[in-house]
Amino acid sequence: MLRYNATDMFIKGFDSVSSGYPINDRLLMSASHMNNTEACDHLINKRPRTFYSIERTDSPGYVKHGNVHILQSCLNLMVHSSFAKGMVSVLPLAVDSGNLDFVRLLLKHLPINEDSNSLLTDNDNDNDIKFKRRGGISVDMLKVLHEEFNCLFVLTKLWKAILSRSVHCNMLGSVQYILDSMPSPKFQQLLSSDDHPNDMSYYWLLWRCAKNDNIAMFDALFNIRLVDQNDRMDIRATINEAADSSHESFIKHLYKYHVGNGHITRICEELLRDLLVMGQDLDILDVDQAKLLITPLAAIRNNDLESFKSATIKQNYNLDAETCRTMTKSMALLISNPLKGVEYNHNNKSLINMVRAVGKPGSNITADIVCQFIVNNNVHRPKKLNDTMKSAAGYSADERRMSRDNVIDIPTH
User: Can you say how many angstroms the Cα of residue 413 is from the centroid of all Cα atoms in its chain?
Assistant: First the structure.
């Protein structure tokens, strides 16, 4: 009844059996999970001395919704005035609710120290915190965490996840607040995360700025590295993403301010030069007059069939999952059946991303297109060939056989 929001029916049913109902907190826990304020109030009023184990470490629904009333009601039932330390696991969910008053009330009763980091997970009990709020985490929420309760930078997992989400959501104000408030030792933690291939790494943040075409945010993040370290940075992934997303102004900004001054590696400098094309009558590169070279992925994403066919574009590229799901049918057919004498080389993720795009909502990729893609292209043997075969298992025997027999091995040295 609670699950289907049949509150009146639930209350009548409970009242009819409440005199003999055993004392426990299961119904109250269920009502709070469903964020049902009326049901919670009724249960508490009927059994005011019923002990409610709010110290459980799961994530009740009222936390997700930031329901201050239910939280305060549950606090009133507690024997002790503070939560058990395990309750810190619900803090990311509370922050994601966006309710400042809820987070304030929670933090007033929540013991937090450096050891609390090991207890932080997302709502799916993953090792990493993943915020889902579309608007990201506001500066006002950051001020509650940092200025009012001084816990933002105590919880390393939390501030890194918030920074990542803020970059993802293009929230320059939140990113700048974190960088301006961050103690020096935390800068080292951020910069030393480079080797982790996930959205907590410093280089991923730069890459995301390129994807979002956010030059101001890139500069804010890039400048902390210039202040803290003197070595040249390898930002090829960032450069390639900007080019593949047709962000010409981003590429020109990188060339103007980071070429020839020791900021980035010489390979990156050459890559930027190669991506900016001058007219035939101009030998010296004038950034303002230059045009961005159209890369294969840029052509695919813009459905530019003629540019994709052009011999001037580079012919080695990676089909990421998003591109496979969103490319037009005409582009998918062209990729799967390239012009005579033209061969495209793909890395080990292209095939599995093509296979997984089959049948996805909005995707134009079919099993037949995948089969033609395998036959007519040089597909390096995927590192996860078994996963590719499993993904192909639901479509056709031809696709499974071609996935196995037509991919090519590449040297491992």
Answer: 32
DSSP-derived secondary structure letter, 378: E
With CA atoms as reference, report the closest residue to 119 among 178, 161, 58: 58
Across the beta sheet with 345-346, what order do the strands follow? 316-317, 345-346, 378-379
Which pTM value belongs to this model? 0.82
The domain total for the chain is 1
Torsion angle in degrees (nearest 10) through CA of 282, 284, 288, 290: 60
Is the residue at 126 inside a domain?
no
**What are the tens digits of pLDDT across the range 48-99?**
544 455 554 445 677 888 889 888 887 777 655 556 667 788 899 999 999 9
Query: Burial level of 226, CB count in 10 A (0-12/13-18/19+)?
Result: middle
- With respect to residue 380, please indicate whether it lies within any of the assigned structural domains: yes
Query: Would residue 337 count as lying in a domain?
Result: yes
The residue length of the chain stands at: 413
Q: What is the largest CA-CA distance in the chain?
A: 93
Three-class secondary structure of residue 169 per DSSP: coil
Q: Is residue 397 part of a domain?
A: yes
Quote the CA–CA distance of 187 and 173 in Å, as a whole number: 18
Report the alpha-carbon distance of residue 235 to residue 257 in Å, rounded: 14
How distant, in Å, are the alpha carbons of 104, 132, 133, 163, 223 from that of 71? Answer: 11, 22, 21, 27, 42
Q: Which domain holds residue 364?
A: 322-405
Beta strands in 108-229 (DSSP E): none
